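Let us practice reading a record.
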Amino acid sequence: EEDRMVTLAGDIIDPLWRRQWYMHDPKVGIEVRQAWTDARGEGAVVAVLDTGVTPHPELDGQLLPGYDFVSDAGAARDGDGRDANPTDEGDWTDPGDCGSLRSTPSSWHGTHVTGIVVARIGNLPGIVGVAPEARVVPVRVMGRCGGRLSDVADAIVWASGGEVRGIPSRAPVDVINLSLRVPGACGMTMGRAIAQARGRGTAVVAAAGNDSAKASTVSPANCPGVVSVAALARDGSMAWYSNFGEGVTVAAPGGSMGRMGVDDILSSVDAGERGRERPIFKYYAGTSMAAPQVAGLVALMRSADPLISVDDITKQLVDNARPLPGPCPKGCGAGLIDAAATVSAVVEDSILPRPEA
């Protein structure tokens, strides 16, 4: 009979794992597989504030009840304003919409980001999220032409356990992911919402932005207390599009955004050009893809130590980052996140006596 190869029964790798270079590449990857020895996200909750979410096998059983904070019914495309249904209705545009002369298909951006965080283990065809045993609260804040800062700020307050008029409150999530940006300083409303979230124990992670500019010029990445994430290309250097500089906390793989899609970040989306059609996988690139890797790592940290503070989360991310595998002369923060080293350090510190408040 054929002398076949035998593999370990405990090997959890999904069929598309090899295409997820950002998770395991020895040079550029975030070393997440080693981190799973200590934690896979069980008990942790991540709020993804984005375009909402679409049905996808990768997200079956991974989602908690969310909310639609898009107050403009026209932008929401669901016939009303805010409601309890965070389903992504599509953000396609026609020529003349949003100040553009061209049409664009729906991005399904929120579904892609959510997959990076919590895509489940063991399904076909299959990718794996950074924190596959965590759960996501999908929060829709973006629709046609984007979203309003007031909606985003209210969503931050709600996701972190604060009160928003007319909307039932929920328990604070462990971390909020903001893969969105607007040029300018951090406004009072956004800054206050983030400060309140941190005060309730919710960490806030934000994409540094894709403007090839200083991260300090883009909100909410420049808001006090935010973990701001720059993007690295496939070769480990700063991605050409990524924002940079003193406003960056850490870096994570974001993809090269070149002709070769395989050098970008693979995750879940829908196939529809406008409305939903069927679940598929697609390569995207950007700091929007780098940030949820950090949010997923924060979920692993909170799973390993539910009592870790938001300040200690940032400290551990910074202290355990690896030196950048490529050049970043304009500044990419403390370096490339290292999930294995960070979670290990959190576990070690959780054993030590905590200082009295």
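A brief commentary: The chain has a mean pLDDT of 94.
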